[in-house]
Fold these 2 entries.
Entry 1:
Amino acid sequence: MYDKNNIFAKIIKKEIPCNLIFEDEKIIFFHDINPQAKIHILGIPKTEVINLSDFIQKCGQEEVYYFFKKIYEIVKKFNLQKTGYRLITNEGTDSNQEVQHFHVHILGGENLGSLN
Ligand code: AMP
């Protein structure tokens, strides 16, 4: 069940501020408050979905494509395609997802190390 009072829902409703990068009626991108790399951006669709499974199951192709296309545009805006970047989305208990509104982390701006 989607919690309408999660932090990102509050950012969407402008109840709390964010360090905004891009926003339109469907999506919003902002800097992570606790960056894990030189560049750490969060991208979220405004639709009330909890995680990737929820997003794919509830939203149509057009909305899913629009969101991921914008991720690529943000990657290019920060020139990350030149040196590389990492996308992360957390879902479920094993991932320790903190905020229960679907989001994608875009990390880059420095060498991120390897996952293992
Ligand atoms: P996750 O573990 O994938 O749910 O990650 C949630 C992310 O949201 C973390 O990287 C937090 O630093 C970030 N975060 C939490 N509150 C805010 C906020 N008010 N503005 C920006 N980022 C936030």
Note: Residues 61-77 form the longest helix (17 residues).
Entry 2:
Amino acid sequence: MKVIITKDYNEMSEKAFEIMAEVVKNKPDAVLGLATGSTPIGLYKNMIKDHNENGTSYKAVKTVNLDEYAGLDVTSDQSYVYFMRDNLFNHIDIDLANTNIENGKAADRKAECARYNALLETIQQDIQVLGIGSNGHIAFNEPGTPFGSVTHIVDLTESTIKDNSRLFKSIDEVPRQAFTMGLKNIMNAKKILILANGANKAKAVFGLVKGEVTENVPASILQLHPDCTLVCDEAAAELIR
Ligand code: F6R
């Protein structure tokens, strides 16, 4: 795994943007695997700035997102589809028809997982952006998720519900279940770009880079990926220096 340590969040977001821009420049119809959460917002801001200033086009790009809360769709401002439009898609020239995310409102959740897995078999991510949970999760693959997992429904752990409650009016509003790409779907990406910032990620970053490869720390599987780059700030890197 390649590790790039930056002084702060802004520098992390700039480095992440450089890696993303290279992919899009070399392949204008690239498949971008995207994540939500606080961590990649700076990367998305840089993509928007570059689109506005340099005209980088996303017209031919396709996207696949990692995960979505079960029960929410674009009409909820807490949904991940809303987040992606608000933080990126509405500000670049991407065709929304080329953007993909699990349908949180699907009546048949199992069928929705099967649809998403079938889609992922037809479009391989040229790059997959990831954040990391303080418990070492990637996407919503919580500790204990099999490395061979594909898109599935998960019961969120108390730790993740607590972490994510900051974005809701109250902890009771955080959905208890979510759709998530599995670890196998993530590992299938040609390139992985994982980002982390802040001291509360330091333990998870240690597990990601230097810990034992174990299903107890889902992110540790990335040690086995042939092209994985971690970009993290000094605070998140505290235990790996
Ligand atoms: C988001 C996702 C999650 C987050 C992780 C970190 O699509 O899959 O795994 O990447 O929970 O969240 P933040 O960035 O908010 O600290």
Note: The chain has a mean pLDDT of 97.
